[in-house]
Amino acid sequence: EGNDGNGYIMIGLIDPDAVIEYGLNFNHQNAYCLHAFDGSLYGNGKSNQGYATAILVGQTVECVHNQDENTISFLVDDVCKGVAFTNVPSQPLHAICNFHILNTQVRLMGY
Known about the structure:
Layout (H helix, E strand, L loop, with lengths): L8 E6 L16 E5 L5 E3 L2 E4 L11 E6 L4 E6 L2 E7 L8 E6 L12
Antiparallel strand pairs: 1-2, 1-8, 2-3, 3-4, 5-6, 6-7
Protein backbone atom coordinates (compact mmCIF):
# COMPACT_ATOMS: atom_id res chain seq x y z
CA GLU A 1 0.00 0.00 0.00
CA GLY A 2 1.20 3.51 -0.63
CA ASN A 3 1.14 6.45 1.77
CA ASP A 4 -0.34 9.94 1.71
CA GLY A 5 2.37 11.08 -0.72
CA ASN A 6 1.62 8.22 -3.17
CA GLY A 7 4.32 6.10 -1.55
CA TYR A 8 8.02 6.73 -1.62
CA ILE A 9 8.49 3.00 -1.85
CA MET A 10 10.30 0.69 -4.25
CA ILE A 11 8.79 -2.77 -4.41
CA GLY A 12 9.84 -5.77 -6.45
CA LEU A 13 12.29 -8.67 -6.59
CA ILE A 14 16.05 -9.08 -6.26
CA ASP A 15 18.68 -11.77 -6.59
CA PRO A 16 19.32 -12.79 -2.95
CA ASP A 17 23.09 -12.69 -3.52
CA ALA A 18 22.84 -9.02 -4.55
CA VAL A 19 21.13 -7.72 -1.40
CA ILE A 20 23.01 -5.00 0.46
CA GLU A 21 21.75 -4.78 4.03
CA TYR A 22 20.59 -1.20 4.71
CA GLY A 23 21.52 -0.29 1.13
CA LEU A 24 19.70 1.15 -1.88
CA ASN A 25 19.03 -2.21 -3.50
CA PHE A 26 16.46 -0.96 -6.03
CA ASN A 27 19.14 0.39 -8.38
CA HIS A 28 21.15 -2.85 -8.53
CA GLN A 29 21.58 -4.65 -11.86
CA ASN A 30 19.95 -7.75 -10.33
CA ALA A 31 16.95 -5.87 -8.89
CA TYR A 32 13.57 -5.44 -10.56
CA CYS A 33 11.54 -2.69 -8.88
CA LEU A 34 8.46 -0.51 -9.28
CA HIS A 35 8.53 2.97 -7.72
CA ALA A 36 5.15 3.53 -6.06
CA PHE A 37 5.48 7.33 -6.26
CA ASP A 38 5.15 7.52 -10.04
CA GLY A 39 4.96 3.95 -11.36
CA SER A 40 8.43 4.02 -12.93
CA LEU A 41 10.85 1.09 -13.13
CA TYR A 42 14.29 0.80 -11.54
CA GLY A 43 17.01 -1.83 -11.61
CA ASN A 44 18.31 -4.18 -14.28
CA GLY A 45 19.59 -1.25 -16.34
CA LYS A 46 16.42 0.83 -15.94
CA SER A 47 16.23 4.08 -14.02
CA ASN A 48 13.02 6.10 -13.84
CA GLN A 49 11.59 4.37 -16.92
CA GLY A 50 7.86 4.99 -17.37
CA TYR A 51 5.65 1.95 -16.84
CA ALA A 52 2.48 2.55 -14.78
CA THR A 53 0.74 5.30 -12.85
CA ALA A 54 1.39 6.22 -9.21
CA ILE A 55 0.29 3.69 -6.61
CA LEU A 56 -2.31 5.23 -4.31
CA VAL A 57 -3.20 4.59 -0.69
CA GLY A 58 -5.06 1.30 -0.37
CA GLN A 59 -4.02 -0.12 -3.72
CA THR A 60 -2.47 -3.58 -3.86
CA VAL A 61 0.66 -4.32 -5.90
CA GLU A 62 1.58 -7.83 -6.96
CA CYS A 63 4.91 -8.74 -8.53
CA VAL A 64 4.94 -11.84 -10.76
CA HIS A 65 8.15 -13.61 -11.77
CA ASN A 66 7.41 -15.91 -14.71
CA GLN A 67 10.36 -18.29 -14.61
CA ASP A 68 9.29 -20.01 -17.83
CA GLU A 69 9.20 -16.75 -19.81
CA ASN A 70 12.03 -15.06 -17.82
CA THR A 71 9.89 -11.97 -17.23
CA ILE A 72 8.60 -9.88 -14.33
CA SER A 73 5.25 -8.11 -14.41
CA PHE A 74 3.37 -6.00 -11.87
CA LEU A 75 -0.35 -6.02 -11.14
CA VAL A 76 -2.12 -3.13 -9.43
CA ASP A 77 -5.45 -4.08 -7.87
CA ASP A 78 -5.39 -7.31 -9.93
CA VAL A 79 -4.87 -5.44 -13.24
CA CYS A 80 -1.68 -6.47 -15.04
CA LYS A 81 0.38 -3.49 -16.20
CA GLY A 82 2.28 -5.64 -18.70
CA VAL A 83 5.79 -7.05 -18.78
CA ALA A 84 8.15 -4.76 -16.88
CA PHE A 85 11.41 -6.72 -17.21
CA THR A 86 12.62 -9.32 -19.70
CA ASN A 87 15.65 -11.63 -19.70
CA VAL A 88 15.25 -12.18 -15.97
CA PRO A 89 17.18 -15.16 -14.59
CA SER A 90 14.97 -18.17 -13.91
CA GLN A 91 16.47 -18.60 -10.43
CA PRO A 92 14.32 -17.83 -7.39
CA LEU A 93 14.30 -14.14 -6.42
CA HIS A 94 13.52 -12.52 -3.08
CA ALA A 95 10.96 -9.80 -2.38
CA ILE A 96 12.42 -6.34 -1.86
CA CYS A 97 10.95 -3.16 -0.44
CA ASN A 98 13.00 0.05 -0.14
CA PHE A 99 11.63 3.09 1.71
CA HIS A 100 12.69 6.67 0.99
CA ILE A 101 10.93 8.39 3.89
CA LEU A 102 10.22 7.35 7.45
CA ASN A 103 6.46 8.03 7.39
CA THR A 104 5.73 5.16 4.99
CA GLN A 105 3.66 2.05 5.59
CA VAL A 106 3.55 -1.21 3.69
CA ARG A 107 1.43 -4.27 4.39
CA LEU A 108 3.09 -7.43 3.11
CA MET A 109 0.70 -10.15 2.02
CA GLY A 110 1.44 -13.84 1.52
CA TYR A 111 1.70 -15.41 -1.91
